[in-house]
Design a protein that fits this description.
This protein has five helices and 19 strands. It is of the alpha+beta class.
């Protein structure tokens, strides 16, 4: 403890206060629980602590130490006088090895709502404390100890439903709030196995059995997490709640025509499936549906355990109704996937013309057969008449 005190004293300017009581104004007061603000970002965590109550207690900004990391300059606070009231800011990455001494704890619980089919939904909690260091040397001190605790909880399971296929990219954009990684996730559709050519769906839809290549990627996300697709399905409605749907794959089971190319091994997951039609849209020229994926972010060392079927609940592949809803913050839907019929009739006039043509062809064939029968009957009658005449002549 003595060595730590000497190191801290060597790095700090003792007795120097960046602000005076007059400069603080009404912010020069006793500390309160609301003096710290926490920003839970996708790559880093930001802390903002009001500095005037710190000065009121007898410290300055340089005497606030994050998780006892006094010797790391990257973990020290910086004074921001442009804020009102002024604050000391700390900012550190989410990477476990250099998060300025933050504690990472991953918890698991059964899924609810749209995730009710999954028995293990993980959340990572990142926490720590900023404490004041008292440089007083002596038997007593008149400075109260300050402790500012912070915590960010990040769920690691998200619903990604994005089928914007006529642009080069379509990222899900939400404000980093309450510790969410969903703003890093995006879905894109491609027409080739190399994932180089985006799939642009024409207005008349794509041909049935056209191979559609799907990619879900996490961009600007701390490298310790990989993308694992838990379930992907198509639904007739843009909102998966209360809509007919078809599972492309679920844990431990997938449709026979769905091909999984990469999943849980990096920050990119890929699979493909052939374009299909929903049976209830069989009377429509174009079948329209939307693609959704439930996406898990798992630590690179734990992704393998979520691929083991004996530890996960499964749902049989079927076409049925979804009754569970999802929150607006995770439900973002864009353009549809459209497939066209094999030989569509586009207008009523074409259908009528086709029917009349078929009727005319049938009449012509019937008339030809009738004429042929009459010719044959006439010929037979003539031959019989000639034979009868010859016999009659011989009798005479």
């Amino acid at each position: 403890m003595v060595l730590l005190s000497l190191l801290i004293l060597g790095a700090l300017v003792k007795g120097h206060l960046a602000l005076t009581a007059n400069e603080c104004g009404t912010s020069f007061r006793r500390p309160a629980y609301t003096d710290i603000a926490v920003s839970c970002g996708t790559q880093s965590i930001g802390l903002a602590i009001q500095v005037c109550p710190v000065i009121y207690t007898g410290y300055n900004e340089s005497l606030l130490i994050l998780n006892q990391m006094a010797n790391d300059p990257l973990c020290r606070g910086t004074l921001d006088l442009t804020a009102t009231p002024p604050v000391v800011r700390f900012n550190f990455p989410l990477r476990q090895l250099d998060a300025c001494g933050s504690i990472f704890r991953t918890t698991s619980a059964p899924g609810t709502g749209i995730f009710s089919d999954f028995s293990n939904i993980q959340t990572v909690n990142i926490s720590g404390v900023v404490r004041s260091f008292d440089p007083t040397i002596g038997t007593v001190t008149y400075n109260a100890e300050l402790s500012y605790f912070y915590s960010c909880a990040y769920p690691l399971e998200y619903l990604v439903n994005n089928t914007q296929v006529d642009v080069s990219s379509s990222s899900i954009a939400v404000i980093d709030n309450n510790g969410s990684f969903i703003s890093t996730l995006s879905m894109r559709l491609f027409k080739d196995v190399n994932y180089t050519t985006p799939l642009v769906i024409p207005a008349i839809g794509v041909e049935l059995r056209t191979r559609i290549y799907v990619q879900v990627i996490a961009a600007n996300l701390t490298s310790q997490y990989h993308v694992l697709l838990d379930r992907c399905y198509a639904s007739i409605s843009a909102l998966p709640s209360n809509s007919t749907f078809f599972n492309l794959f679920v844990p431990c089971s997938r449709d026979q025509f769905t091909t999984m190319l990469e999943n849980g091994n990096s920050q990119t997951a890929r699979f493909s499936f052939p374009a299909f039609r929903f049976v209830e849209q069989q009377n429509q020229t174009i079948s329209t549906y939307y693609l959704h994926c439930i996406t898990r972010l798992c630590e690179s060392s734990t992704c393998a355990q979520f691929k083991q079927c004996n530890k996960r609940r499964r749902r049989e592949i079927q076409t049925t109704k979804i009754t569970d809803g999802v929150s607006d913050t995770t439900l973002i839907t864009s353009g549809p996937i459209r497939t066209k019929a094999e030989t569509p009739i586009t207008t009523k006039e074409e259908a009528l013309s086709s029917a009349q043509k078929d009727s005319g062809n049938g009449s012509s064939v019937g008339l030809g057969i009738a004429l042929a029968v009459l010719v044959i009957v006439g010929t037979v009658a003539a031959l019989m008449a000639v034979s009868f005449y010859r016999k009659l002549k011989m009798l005479r």
